[in-house]
Each structure stands twice: as structure tokens, then as C-alpha cells.
Write a structure and sequence with these properties.
The chain is mainly alpha-helical. About 75% of the residues lie in helices and about 0% in strands.
Length: about 450
């Protein structure tokens, strides 16, 4: 079966083609992956509700262990995942990852009921381990499927699945638990994951070259844009030394760390700040909790289209465009976060609007640093993403601990401001370092030129 492009014009690009089907599958895959990731934060409220029969008597410490156990596994397979995606292709890895996550989600109620919190944590660790393959695989697939001229907007659509999946859980999980009980949260997510896997096995492909449903015209368009015309590219050995001594890549690590530190401080500490200091219980309202994520998801679209348009018109270089949107994505939340710390207590509208602004502006990083891995070294995009995601997520674990060490009185606004100023400073430092030293120019070690030069020098 071959799907032809829906395009009557003579332009080389197809208005709607198989690459857009791949984008939709990766987007929906991220919606499901993030639903599976965050569903525990909603389910645990119902699981420990003492007004319900058979509620679990778990202390706050045990609940914290359960909620953090996903990240224990998540950081460990990031770098190996990038290497495996380059060697075996991103399709098989993301299929296995979501398949394992869906299976474990279906088994989670049994694990909690018969194995207690210990077996529940084991399930979450395994889910985290398997989800470690997702972003390196997606970066590899974007590098193979998305033409350079469409990279910003199509990648933004894909990455928007993270926020939509989170918002979906925040809005829907409470209703699902009320009507069918907390186990239904895991059954629904697990079932959706299994359905996605079944569709992706038939519709997905590692690249246009391996797709059975793509037309010749669209395949040639994508391959020409990416420079993949001709014989299949061989997997080159990873130039580890060149990667870790590359200043542009080091700047990419730092800006990713700044993003994750600031974002995870927002996600873990802001609900407590708004409740303890501002008197706004954002967690009590699912829609209010989801609003920042929905705003970030929606703002990503105009940013993605604008980024591609700027690059197409050659108003800015790819590097300048990425840095501009990355600055919006990190400097914007840094300033808005400081503003949030001065919102008067009890002003619900201003507090929620400011929080929404903080998170919405962060959408700039979708068309900022998050695409630079693919720009600078498409041959090793998965590996580069694995490295930066591993290091930045390790810091995500540290950020809430630092906040806890700083805050001794949760009702004291001045102590919270220290946390916000620190997060803002890290946002700014990470983005500034990237603005000075970052580059989207394809690196010499991407094609093996630097490695060959070193070998000739030794000979």
C-alpha cells in the first residue's frame, strides 16, 4: 500500500503526507507516555483517600518515594538508548518502551493491592527505565523523517504531546477515579498505550527509506532536504571525545540543565507555594492545574510556524532563530517567576494568570535548544539527546531537595523568593551560556571528518 501526497501543486513539498502521519503517531505516543508518567500523581490522591474503603495508609514519606521512583529508572538508560536508536532505529525502541509502559500500567493495581508500595515502586522504576528510550528515539526519528524546512513546526507538534498528556491526566483522572475507582486510571492509560502500539507497528517506520506506505515523490523530497539521497548511511562509531570536548555541545548541556531545573522547581514547588503563601489550592481544581500546560501546548504552535517562516525567509540563520526562541523559553519564565513571588496573598486570578504565563513562555524551548541536537549532529541526535537528558534529569531530582533545604517556614514569602531567584538565575545562566557558545552549524565530527583526521595524524 502506498499513500500519495495530497498536493496538486508543482511544489516539492506535500501538503499532507506520510511524514505527517509519523508526526501524529509520535505526538500521540508522547501524549500516552506522559499520561503514563504523571497518572500516579493523580491516582495516589484517590488511593490514600481515607474516606474511601480499602484506602492505603501510606505516610507522606512513602508517597514521596512512590512519586519519585519513576525518575530513579528514567535517567539510567538515556545514553545507551541514543546509541541503540542509531543502531537499530527509533521505531522499535519507542514501540517496546510504550508497550512495556502500557503492560506495567495494567498490572499496577494488582502490584499495589498484593505487593504493597514496594512492588508499586518496582513497577514505577521499570516504567521509568523503559521511558528512557523515548526522547533519544524521537530525536532519531525526527532527524530521519522531518525536512529541514518544516523542522520547527512539526517538532513542536510532536513535543506538544508532553504538555497535552499531562493536562489530559490532570483533567480526566479525577473523574475516572470518581466513577470507576482509582484502578481505572491505570487500566484506561494502559489500554490506550496498547492500542497505540498496535497502530504504530503497522504505520510506523524508522525512515522514509524503510516505509512501505510512502510515495516516491515524498520520499525523495524528505531525503533531498536531509541529504539522505543515495545508498543507506552506515552507522559511524560515536566520537565520544569530540562530543564531550565540543563547546557548542557543552552549552547545550547547560541550557538543558537550566530548563529542567527551572521547570521541575515550578512543577514540584509552585503548588505548595500557592497554597501555603497565596492561599490558592491549585491541585483542588483539575482544570486550573491543567491550564498552564494547555497554554504551553497552544503557544508552541505559533512559535513553531514563526520559527520556520523566519528561517525560510532568511531573516535569521538557524542558529540565531534557535537562540531567539530559546531566550523566550528561558528568560521569559525566569522574569515571570520573580513576578509570581510578589503576587499578593489571596489574589487567585493574578496568581493563576502569572503561573500560566510562566509555563506558557517556556514553549520557546521547543523551537530552541530541543532541536539543536538534530541541527548540529543529525547522525548522533539520539545519543546527544540521551546525554543532555540524562544529566538534566539527574538535576531534576536535586532541584526539589535544594528547595526543601532553603525553605524552613513554608508560610514565609521571603524564603520562597530565595528559591525563585535561584531558579531564575539558573534559567538565565543556562540560556546565556547557550547564546554565547551555542551553534546549530553541523559539526565536523557528525560526518566522521574529525575522527578521520585524528587517525591520519596518529599514523
Amino acid at each position: 500500500m502506498e499513500i500519495k501526497c495530497m498536493d496538486s501543486s508543482k511544489k516539492p513539498a506535500c501538503f499532507l503526507g506520510v511524514r505527517h502521519l509519523q508526526v501524529f503517531m509520535l505526538f500521540s505516543g508522547l501524549v500516552i507516555a506522559y499520561s503514563l508518567r504523571v497518572n500516579m500523581s493523580m491516582a495516589i490522591v484517590a488511593m490514600t483517600d481515607k474516606t474511601q474503603p480499602n484506602a492505603f495508609d501510606w505516610s507522606m514519606q512513602i508517597q514521596s518515594v512512590i512519586l519519585s521512583s519513576f525518575l530513579w529508572g528514567y535517567i539510567f538508560l538515556q545514553i545507551p538508548a541514543g546509541e541503540l536508536a542509531a543502531r537499530f532505529g527509533g521505531m522499535i525502541l519507542i514501540t517496546i518502551s510504550i508497550g512495556i509502559n502500557a503492560t506495567l500500567s495494567l498490572l499496577t493495581p494488582l502490584a499495589a493491592l498484593y505487593g504493597g508500595w514496594q512492588l508499586l515502586c518496582a513497577c514505577r522504576v521499570l516504567q521509568g527505565l523503559s521511558q528512557g528510550f523515548i526522547f533519544p528515539s524521537i530525536h532519531t526519528l525526527i532527524g530521519n523523517w522531518v525536512p529541514l524546512e518544516e523542522r520547527s513546526r512539526l517538532a513542536t507538534i510532536i513535543f506538544g504531546g508532553c504538555q497535552l498528556g499531562t493536562a489530559f491526566q490532570l483533567i480526566v483522572s479525577g473523574f475516572v477515579a470518581d466513577y470507576w475507582g482509582w484502578p481505572a486510571i491505570f487500566y484506561v492509560n494502559g489500554g490506550l498505550g496498547a492500542i497505540w502500539v498496535a497502530f504504530y507497528i503497522f504505520l510506523g517506520a524508522d525512515s522514509p527509506r524503510n516505509s512501505k506506505i510512502i510515495g516516491v515523490k515524498e520520499r525523495l523530497y524528505i531525503q533531498s532536504s536531509l541529504g539522505h539521497v543515495g545508498s543507506p548511511q552506515k552507522k559511524m562509531p560515536t566520537p565520544w571525545k569530540a562530543i564531550f570536548t565540543s563547546l557548542p555541545f557543552i552549552s547545550l548541556i547547560l541550557t538543558h540543565c537550566g530548563q529542567n531545573w527551572g521547570f521541575w522547581t515550578l512543577m514540584t514547588e509552585i503548588p505548595s507555594y500557592m497554597k501555603q503563601v497565596l492561599g490558592v489550592d491549585i491541585k483542588a481544581n483539575g482544570l486550573m492545574s491543567a491550564l498552564p500546560y494547555i497554554s504551553m501546548y497552544l503557544l508552541g504552535f505559533p512559535m513553531g510556524f514563526l520559527s520556520d517562516y523566519i528561517i525560510k525567509k532568511k531573516w535569521l540563520s538557524i542558529t540565531a532563530s534557535r537562540k531567539m526562541f530559546n531566550s523566550i523559553g528561558l528568560y521569559g519564565p525566569a522574569l515571570a517567576l520573580i513576578g509570581l513571588s510578589y503576587v499578593p496573598a489571596g489574589d487567585v486570578t493574578l496568581a493563576v494568570l502569572t503561573l500560566t504565563l510562566v509555563v506558557a513562555l517556556n514553549a520557546g524551548h521547543y523551537t530552541g535548544f530541543l532541536l539543536v541536537h538534530i541541527d548540529m549532529a543529525p547522525s548522533f541526535a539520539g545519543t546527544l539527546m540521551g546525554i543532555t537528558n540524562c544529566i538534566s534529569n539527574a538535576l531534576s531530582i536535586v532541584a526539589p531537595l535544594v528547595a526543601g533545604a532553603i525553605i524552613s517556614d513554608e508560610n514565609n514569602p521571603s524564603e520562597w523568593r530565595k528559591v525563585f531567584y535561584l531558579s531564575s538565575a539558573i534559567y538565565i545562566i543556562g540560556s546565556t551560556f547557550f547564546n554565547i557558545f551555542g551553534s546549530c552549524e553541523q559539526q565536523s565530527w557528525n560526518t566522521g571528518e574529525e575522527t578521520e583526521h585524528e587517525e591520519k595524524t596518529r599514523i
